[in-house]
Structures are given as structure tokens and as C-alpha cells.
Amino acid sequence: MYNVSVPIPDEVLFDAHLSKRKSEVYVRQAAALFYYTKLGISLGYCADIADMNKTDFIKLLSENGISIFEFENEDELSEDIANA
Q1: Domain boundaries, the chain
Q2: Which entry of 13, 37, 39, 58 is 20 to 30 Å from 48 by CA?
């Protein structure tokens, strides 16, 4: 496991009304969202990065307007729905 340290000025935490713990949670979630959306890292690994279970990570994705479903076009979506 590799750990990354991100210095965040105390003033930022004060201005944002964040505790150090809450700030850590946000940084982990932001990193996980980046790895998932930009690098295509798996849902499971990204849930681990965010320190969440898969269900909660899927909810986090949804809250950020990110779908776990990818369709190239409407026909692909229709086909998937028909096969459900």
C-alpha cells in the first residue's frame, strides 16, 4: 500500500469549517473519483481508496453525476435493457 501526503493549510480547514479527519475523507474521495473517471481504475479498488464499501462508493459516484454504466450509443443501451 502506498500512502500520499497532501499538505493543506490550517487556514483552508478553518475557512471550510473542516476537521482534519473530514478533510482526509474528502481527499480520499476526490482521489478515488479521479482514479475511477480519468484512469479507469476498477470500482473495487476505488472504493478501497475512498475507504468505502462498493455500495457507498457507487452512491458517491451518483452524487457526483457519475454513472457506473457506459454505453457508446442509444442502441447499446436499448440492447442492454432488452437483455435485462
Answers
A1: 10-82
A2: 13
Instruction: For Cα atoms 38, 40, 45, give the angle at the middle one, nearest 5 degrees.
Output: 115
pTM value is 0.81
Cell of 19: 476537521
Amino acid at 77: L
- CA 58 – CA 52 distance, rounded (Å): 10
| 67-79 tens-digit pLDDT | 888 766 777 667 7
Contact in structure between 66 and 58 (CB atoms under 8 Å): no
The three cell numbers locating residue 62: 451518483
Secondary structure (DSSP) of 19-80: -HHHHHHHHHHHHHHHHHHHH---HHHHHHHTT--HHHHHHHHHHTT--S---SSHHHHHHH
Residue 79 · residue 50 · CB < 8 Å: no
